[in-house]
Structure formats: C-alpha cells, structure tokens
C-alpha cells in the first residue's frame, strides 16, 4: 500500500503525470479520483505541485464540463481549495483569468446544485483576490443571473455584514463585489 502511495505522489509531481491524472478524473473510478484529489491540496500547500498542468486543465471548459458531474461536493471543495492555493501564487494573465474560469465552471454546473453554489462562492473569492468584478457581472446577467439570484443575494448580504469590520482597503474591494452581485 505504501509503495502505491509513493508511486502516486511521484506521478503527480511530474507535469506529464499530473496532466494525465487531472485530464482522466472524469473517467477514473471513485477511489482513484478520491485518492488523486486528496493528494493535490497538501502538495499545493507544500509547493510540490507543478502549476502549469493544473492551469492547462482549469483553462479548458470542456474539462470542467466532463469532470464536474463526477465530483462529489467534498472532492469539488478540495479541488477548489487547491486551485485557490495556486491562484495565490499565480502571476499576470493566470491570476486575472482564474475568476473567469470559475465563472465558466459555475455556468457549466447543474442549475440549483450545491456545486453551482460552491463555484459561485469561489468565483466571488477569486474575483475579490484579483480585484476584478467582471467574472461576477457575467454570471449575474440574463437567465443565469436569475438562476443564481438567491445564492448571489446570500453572498452579497454576507459581504455587506462584514464590511464594517474590514480595513478600509478591503471594505472597498467588497463594495465592488457587492455591487456586482445584483441580477442585471
């Protein structure tokens, strides 16, 4: 058993092995998917996860469409937490595009699902980190905005409640996010 864990960690530490593991998540068994996803967060926190293969998958909306239906809420949470760690160290274009990739994934998730709710939250968090509201505005427009209205109102209300306790620079960022969380 220990030998298989060491082999899996070694595979995930190589760009090719990580890319293959991520691209095959939708076809993997529940046990294999669980094992791979549970390894990603500790590896990201230890800076032992090659970021480029991860970003290549995140940038592919078809990967999200194939993979999301197969992920349990727990696995999606772990994957999103891993991506948040990588987002914190991303630079340039990747840093700014990440909220948009999450918004696309949010739209790809089933309407009314807990996955869509979680992806909306992570889109808001990533947009706040990147100091951009355009990904949220995209979600709040048209039919999708109406589908997300209750969830968006919940997060908008929460942001409004915490604003008085935030330092001024962070309160300004949350005001930008709350203004974007209205259905257009």
Concise account of the structure shown:
The protein has 184 residues and is mainly alpha-helical. Helices cover 78% and strands 0% of the residues.
Describe the structure.
This protein is mainly α. The protein has a domain at about 90-184. It has helices at about 1-10, 15-25, 30-45, 50-60, 60-65, 75-90, 90-110, 115-130, 135-140, 140-160, 170-180. The protein is globular and about 50 Å long. It starts with a helix and ends with a helix. The mean pLDDT is about 85.
In what range is the share of β-strand residues? under 5%
Low-confidence stretches: none
Distance between the termini: 53 Å
Based on secondary structure, the structural category is mainly alpha
Which radius of gyration do the C-alpha atoms yield? 17 Å
Major β-sheet annotation? none
Mean pLDDT: 86
Query: How does the overall form come out from the CA principal axes?
Result: globular
Number of helices, counting only DSSP H or I runs of 4 residues or more: 11
Number of strands: 0
Keywords summarizing the entry:
184 residues, mainly alpha
SSE layout:
Elements: H1 2-12, H2 15-23, H3 30-45, H4 51-58, H5 61-67, H6 73-89, H7 92-108, H8 114-130, H9 134-140, H10 142-162, H11 168-180
Helix pairs in contact: 2-4, 3-6, 6-8, 7-8, 7-9, 8-9, 8-10, 10-11
